[in-house]
Hints:
Elements: H1 5-12, E1 16-17, E2 22-23, E3 34-36, E4 39-46, H2 54-66, E5 73-80, E6 96-103, H3 111-124, E7 129-133, H4 141-144, E8 161-163, E9 166-170, H5 185-198, E10 204-210, H6 217-225, E11 230-235, H7 239-254, E12 259-264, E13 269-270, E14 277-278, H8 285-292, E15 297-300, H9 305-312, H10 317-320, H11 325-351
Parallel strand pairs: 4-5, 6-10, 6-11, 7-9, 7-10, 11-12, 12-15
Antiparallel strand pairs: 1-2, 3-4, 8-9, 13-14
Helix pairs in contact: 3-11, 5-6
Amino acid sequence: MAVTEQDIMKALTAIEDPDLHRDIVALGFVQTPEILGDVVNVRIVLTTPACPVRETIERDARELLLALPGVREANVTMDATVAQHRVSERTPVNGVRHLIAIASNKGGVGKSTVSANLAVALASLGARVGLLDADITGPNLPTMMGIGQGSQVEAGGLRVDERHGVKVCSIGFVLPRGTPVVWRGPMIGTAVRQLLHDVDWGELDYLLIDLPPGTSDASMSMSMEAPISGAVIVSTPQDIALEDAAKAVGMFDKLNVPIFGVIENMSYFVCPHCNEQTEIFGHGGARAAAEDLGLEFLGELPLDPATRKAADEGTPIVVLAPESAQAQAFIEVAKKVAARCSVLEYAAAVSA
Ligand SMILES: Nc1ncnc2c1ncn2[C@@H]1O[C@H](COP(=O)(O)OP(=O)(O)OP(=O)(O)O)[C@@H](O)[C@H]1O
Ligand SMILES: [Mg+2]
């Protein structure tokens, strides 16, 4: 008996998207199957190339299809389209599906390191990614992405530069190295608008925004000048840093920016000699704080000398050593962040 399209679709309803809590057929992920005798070709289009369960869905789909009577061969092709259904009063950034802000109230907790690594992680998973350095007075991303401060001083205008598969833009590109710049509030607002709306980002699935610490002019302008899909709060496990995380949460709440969750950075130290794990700042504090604040905990990242060195030398650890445990930790967090965007989109599409 020949297999039908109906049999195929019915079988695939057994697969549920763990973030959207519905089956992949109802979600419209399964394209019309191709049936060539006893060979079935199915294409599944997910909402992000960084889907945390992509491999599981692919494997389960193949197994379910092969279990159908009349199917000898099943080919499953995985694809992804990042959609954008939300409407906002804030001006969208041309071509960009999702803006994701990386924030903390406290300085030096690793926002820039996390932004750079999440960006390259999403790109390595197949997404089109940009990285915007919103730290106007102390831009670090040119160095961390290996582009260098002042690389566009002669260029007569700010533009994106592509490195490690990510489109990057920073005021640091047009500031000569070592020149102190005194910014006044209105100038910061102008710089932020320029970075968001005047720079040609092209088509992007995700634009990650590395914010300066605290509720600075740049952070406020960024949140008001464009529809940010969600903010990711970076914190170290210390109590003081966690108090600060709560302040950052307060700012985004006031500005009506959704918060995707909290990342604990410098969570623990793994001794490179004996592999012993030491919890320098305590451990698990950010997870507990996230729960207290009713936010999702997006994962923990180790305090790791190689991560710092890689950042200083301009090649994020996710690019330098993608198979390492540290890089894998970043990749897991990146998938969770992408999943938050998909959930938001789904909610918008359903209510539209
Ligand atoms: N997980 C980590 N392991 C080791 N070093 C780290 C880690 N995360 C960040 N660092 C280091 O800590 C320092 C501060 O990090 P980073 O510049 O990313 O923080 P930040 O929050 O962006 O700081 P600022 O508030 O000044 O913008 C850097 O030297 C960076 O290399
Ligand atoms: Mg920074």
